[in-house]
Model the fold of this input.
Amino acid sequence: MTDAPTILYETPAAGVARLVLNRPESRNAQDTILLYALNTAFDQAARDDAIKVIILSAAGPHFSSGHDLREQGSITDQMAGHDPVGTWCGFGCAGAEGRMAREKEVYLGLSERWRNIPKPTIAQVQGKCIAGGLMLAWPCDLIVAADDAAFCDNTVGMGVAGVEYFAHPWELGPRKAKELLFTADWLTAQDAKALGMVNHVVPASELATFTLDLATRIASKPMFALKLAKEAVNAAEDAQGRVSAMQTAFALHQLAHSHNMQVHGMPIDPGGLQVRRKT
Ligand code: ZN
Done:
């Protein structure tokens, strides 16, 4: 165990904040504490007028192994001490109600909130980015990947139809999105770039300097124009039905959890845990 903060907040250059996922011993698995710490750091960067670009990076060899399935306690315990950023409450409610409330808040809710931060954001990804890891990288505006980066959503094997922030069709196109979900095969950084999911692939040794240089160049532009450019592109995605499609996928995700509770007595298919350990 370590007492180190789960998120580091750095200002490596003028106008640039760099948030660092700092649980390398668990491959930056996301528990509730880490997610709220990350949200606080995003808020700090968003509210600081001196910051124009935000980098999301990760300590250690891997970006994120996804949600921390070892997190202990009831949903009420997990949510204790955190101030919800959404209005869908009822974390202590029984059955599907409490689980949906938590996932709507800490998974879909936080990722969507970060996607809409009105400043350019850049994910800096090395190593493995698995399932919930996608929910940190995808909400960012740009993604820079090391040549050793690889992406995977293995949730179908766990009896759930994709992670809660269901951006797959928008990030990959419908056909490749289905293959990613059906097979859980690794998507390499180069393949992700070919699909338009990743902006740049660079040698791992150059990842941090390349990303910081990109952020610095963007930070030289007028802040308001950057905000408006981001808003315009985001609006184009939303005009295509992104939000309603993701809400439908989230409802299906909750249906899958409820089904698994009835059939397996737990929110995921336990057979999928064996698959996950092999990744
Ligand atoms: Zn879920």
Remarks:
- The longest strand covers residues 7-13.
- The mean pLDDT is 95.
- The first helix runs from residue 32 to 47.
- DSSP finds eleven helices and nine strands in the chain.
